[in-house]
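G., the chain you wanted modeled:
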Amino acid sequence: MSLSRTDRTAPVPAHSAGVRPILLDAAGLTLSGLLAQPPDTPPRATVVAVHGGGMRAGYFDGQADADLSLLTLGARLGYTVLALDRPGYGHSAAQAPAGLTLDEQSAVLSAALEAFAARHRVGHGFLLLAHSYGGKLALTTAARTPGLLALDASGVGHRYGIQPDERRRLRRHLEWERNWGPLGLYPPGTFRAAGHLIAPIPAREAAEVPLWPAMFDELAPRIGIPLRLTFAEHEAWWQHEEADLADLTSRLTKAPLVRVERQPGAGHNISLGRAARPYHLRALAFFDEALRTAGHDPAGTPAPAS
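Predicted structure as tokens:
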């Protein structure tokens, strides 16, 4: 994708209007992130957005187009949206330069939710929305943390479409194509705006990549909340033919609802592409459904504690 002179030189906002930076102390680390809250009403619930490998929390607040941001959309629809830099990214990168394992990240994420709830109204509770490696963390956390309401993840499966040792041999442009897909899927300015989102993948995180298929098989039967998985039309990192998806869902025996969907007109990085808004709307609709099924009115909030 070629960039116009204006596209190359115009300043990129740090975040959208109504979105603010936040720091949370959790399990000995200080996590950075972004927060958006409903402007005039208490939240229905709190969506916790978890980014993938090599990205940061701003993935969910894309700046190339006003329609990209999950944070602003969620807040307009009555949700608090908290997008966190995972351990080893953002502020905590200096504290954990080699990163953490998924188990360790899960413990930090659970502690971060407790810390956030101690200082903010969270509505009916926490919903996880995650992408790629963040989907692995969300699935790990859902299997090990009681009380979560639902999980929506994109760009994560249970069997790789390319083996980790093959990935090391990929030429850089081929790996880029697997992450992004056709350039026309993204609005002008995407790759300039995404420059400040990109971060090194911590070594301990990278070392666990080959272990994920076995880890998923162990975690899957323990996930007991409604679950939605989305695969982009141009997803290239995961196996997602019908037989693959049948095998994946067959392992999620405890989840009361498992929904697998495909997102047309999208590459792996759905939330930075033109399909971001329809994907985010479907994810939030799934959360509304999960709240109703659990007996919560998604248009309302819990009564204050007495």
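Residues 102-119 form the longest helix (18 residues).

Shout if anything looks off.
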